[in-house]
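Help wanted!
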Amino acid sequence: MADAQPPQRPDLYIVARLLERLWRDNAPMLKTRLQVAANVNYDVFSRYLAWMLAKGLVSLENSPDGHERVALTAKGYEAYRRLVQWINEVVRERPPEL
Amino acid sequence: MRRENLVLLVGAILLDLGLLGLTLLFIFLGLPGPLVSISFTSWVIAAAIALGVLVLPKFRFSSSPASPERALAEFAHRLRASGYTVAEAPGMLDIRLGRILAVKVSALPSGEGSDLFFQMSATSDGWFVSIMSIIWFAPVALNGFLYAFARVRSSVRERIAPILSGGAPLPEDEIRTGLVAGLAEAHRLALEGYEAERSAYWDTAGLVLIGAILIFGVVLAGSLVASSGAVLRVRVIDGLAQSATASTTFGVVAWFVVRQRLRPRLFEIRRWMGRLRDAWTREASGGTPADAGPSVFELLMEASREVPGWLEARRRTSLSRDWGGFTVLWLLAGGSVGLFIQAGAGAVLGNPLLAVIGASGGLGLAAGSLWFYRWWNRLEREAIERTRASWERRFQAVRERMEQHLQDL
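Answered by r_m:
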């Protein structure tokens, strides 16, 4: 996982899907659970996780059961909030606050 | 029954009895026809006045400690979280209460907070039904408006006001608020687009019916003129058989074509409405979508690509209600049909001058109406293209900004 190459230009939809899942669960998620919930293969998941870790959007936590879990950081929450705000303004026919 | 509703009921009965009495009095007195027709017209006038009196005033129904703008914004969110379709306009909310009825809510400053007022309103279907019923069924319309007002008022007091005063507090989570608002708004646009497409579908069905009736009449007249049999009864039966065959064939083929062309679009918008409604309900109740499904963000991104189509449908319907354009088209096409009938009459009566003038005038007006329709249609298409292009540019700009935002983190 640590060797995974982050994507050069991340796909907006995949990033949003991962952030939304973490936001919904409101608690650190098992990597495998997050991968299944986001509906991406292991390779893609690893690369995006590496990218999000590098950007500080998520962090890794060790849980007592020995499994690593992925947690949404405050920066990750803010990033997803901005995305939702922008798409919301597009749908609501308002000039986006860019 | 509430006291106010009882007052409305008694008022409606007195008004009905008064207008009915006036009409009967005019008939029994043997007054001339115009006066009797005036008494019938009084129903139409009374219905139109009733609609104005019930729709224009604003009635206070609640208050809020927040400023008017904040009060309306919070109210809009609470209504959406409760499943209501709400359109926001400056200083005003437009809330659908069903397929026909709607209510407008506005807020005015009062002391530290604001007072909230409601106004009876209607959906586009509701306004259409109101105007048609005033014209064709004025007595029914008059009573229908009073009933509609009682329904709107009781809905505001029993369903809407409690959402404002006792509803759940606004969620702290801006993401949840944003997703609910986006889904509710996308659903409203899809719903309005669907209603516009459905209206266009039935308008086209009406045109097919009118076309079939016209063909029936023209073929029957042509058959009667062309046939040379001695027995009129046989000529009429033959003519009826030919015209029925022609009009039925036209009706069936045209209806099939209309269904094939328009129904897939209706089904597609309905499918979108279902997806958005499901996600909206789930989001408002704090539910989680199934694993491996698309995110709500993706759903909103996809839906926003469909929005121009929904807006187009709405725009087409509003253009089809462009009374000025319709009047010109109606005058040209109607004049053309009238002149062709005149030409036919000239041919039957053996008056070639009348036939030639009628035919040439009819052809001229038919060409004029075709030219006008094409010009009118081109303007519409250009406007739609401009809207589409502008929407696409805006969508791409926002998407690029989102991607740049992720890159810059």
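OP: Thanks! One thing I noticed: The longest helix of chain A spans residues 74-91.
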